[in-house]
Amino acid sequence: MMENLSALTMVVSARAMLDAILAGEGDAAVLADLAQGRLRAKRALLEQALSGRVRAHHRFLLAEHLTQLDDLEAQIGRFDARISAYLDEPSAPPAAAPPQPPPRRPSTRRR
Q: Quick one: which of 31, 65, 62 has its CA closest to 46?
């Protein structure tokens, strides 16, 4: 459970940083300040990783990737809802077994 919470904190932090970059923020210190949880302890490394030039084409690509992630998350939500609805439906009685053909009679012909 703690691993999931830690991973979620990293995802939330990363998304906040990426959204800030998309909004035009370029100051690595400001971006590193968006870290949450245990990621805050790595602030110096974050600053180093977040320093650099982000140009318009980088922002375009980043926006496209984040849009795709958002679309996939929405699709997963629709699948989850559909699966939940299916599992909540009352179970139908099992289908009757298909009729079996009558047994074959032994042949009376000589060979």
A: 31
Maximum CA extent, the chain: 97
Q: Do residue 48 and residue 4 come from a single domain?
A: yes
Considering only CA atoms, which of 65, 89, 1, 106 is closest in space to residue 9?
1
Specify whether 49 is located in the same domain as 76.
no
10: Cβ contacts below 8 Å, ≥ 6 apart = 37, 39
Span 65-85, pLDDT tens digits? 999 999 999 999 999 999 999
* SS3 call for 78: helix
Taking the complete model, does pTM exceed 0.85, yes or no? no
Q: Are 7 and 25 in contact (CB under 8 A)?
A: no
SS3 at position 106: coil
Q: What is the DSSP code (8-state) at residue 38?
A: G
Ordered DSSP codes for 29-53: HHHHTT--GGGGGGHHHHHHHH-S-
